[in-house]
Each structure stands twice: as C-alpha cells, then as structure tokens.
Write a structure and sequence with these properties.
The chain is built from 15 helices and ten strands. The protein is α/β, with parallel strands linked by helices and about 350 residues long. The chain has one domain (about 10-335): NAD(P)-binding Rossmann-like Domain (Rossmann fold), CATH 3.40.50. An eight-stranded mixed sheet has the order 3-2-1-4-7-8-9-10, sandwiched between helices. The chain has a two-stranded antiparallel ribbon with strand order 5-6. The longest helix has 22 residues, at about 200-220. The radius of gyration is 19 Å and the shape is globular.
C-alpha cells in the first residue's frame, strides 16, 4: 500500500546513513501500543501539548505520556471536553479550550499556554473535525481544511518559540487518506471553499495531505533549531476501515478490516513514539506508519508545493485574523520563529 514501510535500498538515496540506521533499529511495529513504545522512558519535567485530547487517539497518547511522568496540556474544542479528559488523567494534565475551526479560540489557547511560561518538549496535533456529509464553510474556507490544517497551522506557529531547541519535537497526525483520497494535485488551491466541487472524502484527504506537507516544510524551516517534525498515519480503526469500503459485501469488508484494524493504543503508538522516545531522536521530515518510516504521498517531496501551501495558509490566517480583529501578537512571534534563521 502507499504507506508501506520504506525499503532501505531506496532510502540510501534520500537520507543520510545515520538517520537510516536509527530508523531501522526501532523494534516497534503495527501491533505496538503507546504504552509499549514508551516503556522505561522517564518523561519527568517534560511538557507536551496534545490536541484532540478528548478523542480516542489523543486521549490514549496523553495518557501514555502522563503515565511516564510528562505534564500534558490537553486541548479540546471546549473547556468542558478538555477538562473531562484531563480529569481522567489526573494532576499531570491541564485542560485548554481550543476550537481549531475558530481562530479566535486558537489565539486564546495559544495565549493561555504562553502565559504558563513553560518550554514545550513536544507538540502532538491529533484533533480533527468531524467529516460533514455536505459542504460546510467558515471564513470562506471548507471546514475540514480549516479545522484540520489551518487551525493547527495557526496554533503551532504561534507556539514555535516555546519549543525547545535541540530536543523539541512536533508530531503531525495525518492519515493514509493523504495518499488514497487526496486530489491528484494535492491541494485544490482554486477550490478551497468547495464551491466548484465537493466530496467529503476528497476534502478529508486534501486536509490530511495538507498537514503532512506542512510538517515537511516546517521540518525544513526548523532544521537549524534542531527541532524534529514528522507526520504519521495512525492506522485504521474499525470505523475508518469500513467507511472506505461501503460498496463491498459486508462479509468481505469485515474479513478485510480485521487484517488492518488496530486498537486505540496501537493507533496512538506512532504519535507517542515520535513525541517522546529516544529511539527517534534526530529523525525529521519523515512520514511514518506502524512506528516506522514509510512512503507517503509522492507530492510530499514537492518543495514548491509545500512553499505555496505555507504562503496560502499564512494569507488565510492573516485574512481571518484581520476580519475578526484578533490580537496578532502571538501569531507574529510564531511566524518569526520559523523564518530567516531556519531557512
């Protein structure tokens, strides 16, 4: 499949031998869980941010990190949802309200986090908006692109100067839909409002390709700060496995899904590995699946497309910010943290 583990022979032409050796020595795979990949890892005094903490994978990721000593900032669409999730973790989790489809809410969340005056050891962007069956837009942008990509783009960029140089990590949860469902051109820049054409799965795939491409460009911009940025496919759950095969006989669907279906702990494993395991130290700019470097959408290697996405995303954030008269101080700080010094 498009997200298979990358063959080492092909990798020799793309990555240096040191990174190749590190990636090939990771003893985890498709059946590993978040708790297993972090076994024995002491995360005491680490601060890690996780979006979508009230969602299955986000909660499992947060739980595994906190169980190993990290203090987790758990973000969810409402304070009540974030608090409910964090209360189940205990004192090592702090709830933060952050509606990723509302850039005022994103700015408020970033301001609250900056007010804590702590350095971030990792950011894990896991949250995603529910897939609408019919076209929904906000600020003139299709909802999935706005919530899954633009919201995270704005949040992460406002917090970049808090991420530790040398050891910091940013983990972007994408999906195999970035390969299977994304449009042929990757991003439909002339149809980001969905008015020319709309299909829920295509726009979901586009949003998940956008976050993976953002991770690729961000890794390039942060290379001089030695902050690792990677994206990943978490693996199929029973629901997502069936959703892609609705037209097949149910018996065939069930037997096929069983081969690829993962538990929540297994789906959270790759994110937990990339956020905190010493085994992946120094590996950046990769797409992962099953706790291994994998082949993503070939367009992830298109640097011009990545730069265009960054530019368009910046324009969208600035347009929305100006329209809603949001205080842009935090956004400007985050933007400066990615530009001249890291290119």
């Amino acid at each position: 499949m498009g997200y298979r583990a990358r063959s080492h022979g092909a990798s020799l032409r793309e990555r240096d031998l040191g990174v190749l050796f590190m990636a090939s020595s990771i003893p985890h795979g498709a059946r590993s869980t978040a708790n297993q990949v972090l076994a024995g890892v002491d995360l005491t005094r680490r601060w890690i941010l996780v979006t979508g903490c009230d969602e299955e994978i986000g909660f499992e990721t947060m739980n595994a990190l906190a169980a190993n000593g990290a203090h987790v900032l758990g973000l969810a669409g409402s304070l009540a949802s974030a608090k409910n999730a964090c209360d189940q973790i205990g004192p090592r989790a702090t709830p933060v309200a952050c509606d990723l489809a509302d850039l005022d809410s994103v700015a408020a969340a970033a301001g609250m986090i900056r007010g804590l005056q702590v350095s971030l050891d990792a950011i894990v962007t896991n949250a995603e908006v529910e897939m609408p069956s019919t076209l929904r837009t906000s600020y003139g942008v299709e909802l999935q692109f706005l919530g899954n990509h633009i919201g995270h783009f704005a949040l992460v960029n406002q917090l970049l100067d808090l991420v530790r140089n040398g050891t910091g990590r940013i983990v972007i949860v994408s999906s195999s839909a970035s390969i299977i469902q994304a449009p042929a051109e990757g991003i439909m820049f002339d149809n980001l409002d969905g008015r020319r054409f709309y299909d829920p799965m295509t726009f979901y795939g586009q949003s998940k390709f956008a976050v993976a491409l953002y991770a690729k460009e961000l890794s390039r911009r942060l290379r001089r700060r030695a902050i690792a940025v990677n994206s990943l496919h978490p693996g199929a759950s029973k629901v997502t496995g069936v959703r892609h095969n609705l037209l097949l006989p149910l018996r065939v669907v069930r037997s096929t899904v069983q081969l690829f279906m993962k538990s929540t702990g297994q789906r959270a494993a790759t994110a937990a590995l990339l956020a905190a395991s010493p085994r992946v130290m120094g590996i950046t700019g990769e797409y992962w699946s099953d706790c291994q470097v994998a082949d993503g959408n070939p367009l992830l290697n298109d640097s011009e497309l990545a730069k265009r996405l960054w530019q368009v995303s910046t324009q969208i954030v600035e347009r929305i910010t100006n329209a809603t008269r949001t205080n842009t101080a935090g956004w400007l700080v985050g933007r400066e943290a990615t530009e001249p010094r890291s290119i």
